[in-house]
Amino acid sequence: MTSVNRLSRLDPEIAARLKRDASGLFPAVAQQYDTGEVLMLAWMDDEALHRTLTTGLCTYWSRSRQEYWVKGATSGHEQRVKSVALDCDGDTVLVRVDQVGGACHTGDRTCFDATVLKPAAPPSAASPPPAGSPPAAAAGS
After folding, report:
1. How far apart are CA 19 and CA 93, in angstroms?
2. How much is the pLDDT for 2?
C-alpha cells in the first residue's frame, strides 16, 4: 500500500496547498534552526506532516519500508520541530529543527557530510561567452 491511500488528519487548508508526487509524497528538508545547516532530506505525506505539526517531532514516510517513522525513535537522535514552512510552489516543506545527535542514519551530523562535490570553476572575465549567448551590451548604452 502506498502512502497516497492512507487517511490523514492534516488541516484541509494546509492539504489544499500541497503538491504531491504520484505516491502522495513530497520532500521535507530538515535544517538546524539556529545555524541554517542542512541536515537531511526525507519524504512526507499529509499524515506525516500532521504528526510532525502536532507532536513537535519529525515524522517521515519510509518509501522502502512503507511505514511512518519518527526521527530518533530508535536512535535517540530526535529532530525537535521549531517551525515548518511550505515553499512557494507547495511541493516541498522546510522543517527547522533542533537536532539531537546525528541526523544521518550513518551517525554523521548531516546526510551531506560524506561527499563534497567540487563546484564548477566560475568563468573568467576573458573567457568568450557560451555559443548562442546574446552579445554583451556596449559600455555607456
Report:
1. 10
2. 47
- How far is Cα of residue 129 from the mean position of the Cα atoms in its chain? 35
Cell 557530510, residue? Answer: 113
Q: Is 82 helix (H, G, I), strand (E, B) or coil?
A: strand
Predicted TM-score (pTM) of the model is: 0.78
Domain that holds residue 43: 12-99
pLDDT (tens digit, 9 = 90+) per residue, 3-22?
455 778 999 999 999 999 99
Q: How many domains does the chain have?
A: 1
Residue 127 lies in a domain: no
Query: Domain for residue 89, yes or no?
Result: yes
The answer to the question of residue 20 being in a domain is yes
Inter-CA distances, 59 with 102, 128, 134, Å: 16, 50, 48
The answer as to whether 129 is a domain residue is no
- Burial code (b: 16+ CB inside 10 Å, e: under 16) for 119-133 equals eeeeeeeeeeeeeee
Question: What is the CATH number for 48?
Answer: 3.10.20.810
Whether 80 and 44 have beta carbons less than 8 Å apart is answered as no
Distance CA 40, CA 97 (A): 11
